[in-house]
């Protein structure tokens, strides 16, 4: 099960990376189109869709890598039992909020598909397509929260601390 979950997080991160490459392509195409005097319709919208997709799809992998912002100053002031209680409490709240985000993101994409909702820009993209990356990213993020909660309750959670806070500038 652990390998499956890690593969899920890594796959979502790979999709986020592809979105970033696509975003780069949209920006380059936009610059080239302006320099050569032609209009590539919908480039700004597609760049926005790809940016949102990259952000949502990268959430779970970033969380599991210990790169999300954590307030450890408060946690380090407590003993191990109180710290663990706060960790469990925060993971329960985060799991509930993550599940709500996933549910409503999936619902939004589904309703956009049902109502044939399209972009108001000149690209007229069916909105369920870009919303799908948000729904998938939010769902994988919720799974990551529940995964961390289960590991914490079992006493198997390994808190990964980012090396970023060790840098002193």
From TrEMBL:
Which stretches make up the Tripartite ATP-independent periplasmic transporters DctQ component domain?
24-154
Q: What is its main location?
A: membrane
Q: Which is an annotated GO molecular function term of this record?
A: transmembrane transporter activity
Where's it found, cell-wise?
Cell inner membrane
How does the entry describe its membrane topology?
Answer: Multi-pass membrane protein
Q: Where are the transmembrane segments?
A: 12-33, 45-63, 88-110, 130-150
Mind telling me which GO cellular component terms the entry cites? plasma membrane
Swiss-Prot/TrEMBL GO biological process terms: C4-dicarboxylate transport
Keyword terms:
Cell inner membrane, Cell membrane, Membrane, Transmembrane, Transmembrane helix, Transport
The cross-references to PANTHER family, in alphabetical order and at most eight, read: 2,3-DIKETO-L-GULONATE TRAP TRANSPORTER SMALL PERMEASE PROTEIN YIAM (PTHR35011), TRAP TRANSPORTER SMALL PERMEASE PROTEIN (PTHR35011:SF10)
Function summary:
Part of the tripartite ATP-independent periplasmic (TRAP) transport system.
Question: Member of which family?
Answer: Belongs to the TRAP transporter small permease family.
What subunit structure does UniProt give?
A: The complex comprises the extracytoplasmic solute receptor protein and the two transmembrane proteins.
Q: What is this protein called?
A: TRAP transporter small permease protein
């Amino acid at each position: 099960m652990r390998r499956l979950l890690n593969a899920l997080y890594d796959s979502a991160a790979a999709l986020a990376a592809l979105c970033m490459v696509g975003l780069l392509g949209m920006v380059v195409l936009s610059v080239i189109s302006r320099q050569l005097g032609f209009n590539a319709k919908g480039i700004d919208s597609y760049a926005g869709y790809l940016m949102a997709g990259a952000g949502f799809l990268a959430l779970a992998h970033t969380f599991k890598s210990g790169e999300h912002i954590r307030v450890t100053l408060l946690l380090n002031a407590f003993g191990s039992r109180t710290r663990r209680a706060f960790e469990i409490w925060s993971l329960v709240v985060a799991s509930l909020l993550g599940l709500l985000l996933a549910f409503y993101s999936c619902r939004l994409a589904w309703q956009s598909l049902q109502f044939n909702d399209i972009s108001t820009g000149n690209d007229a993209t069916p909105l369920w397509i870009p919303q799908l990356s948000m729904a998938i990213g939010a769902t994988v993020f919720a799974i990551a929260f529940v995964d961390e909660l289960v590991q914490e309750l079992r006493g198997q959670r390994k808190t990964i601390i980012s090396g970023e806070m060790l840098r002193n500038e």
